[in-house]
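The records we work with from here on pair a chain with its fold. These numbers are not coordinates but entries in a learned vocabulary of local backbone shapes. To see the layout at work, look at the sequence and tokens printed below.
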Amino acid sequence: MYEKVLLPIDLAEKISWRKALPTAVECCRAFGAELHLMTVVPDFGMSAVAQYVPEDYTERAAAEAAEQLKKLSAEQVTDGIKVHHRVGYGSVYEEILKAVEGT
């Protein structure tokens, strides 16, 4: 029935994945689906704010988020489930929609 399961999470909020991740894993196990874990590093939305942020902020934040996603999946996802990690940058809902279109 399912080939892929997309689970967007907020790494800063355990409540965003505490119940959803085990449910997604069980769904993947039941249907032999792949799990796509994603998080989004929000942008600042205003160029006036961006001038106070280090130039490499986006790259560093994305790298840190990717490491956190990998750590989370290593701790919470059982063997036999294929996991893909995705880190978006910008508007949360737009990045989720992009992931759905590309998944």
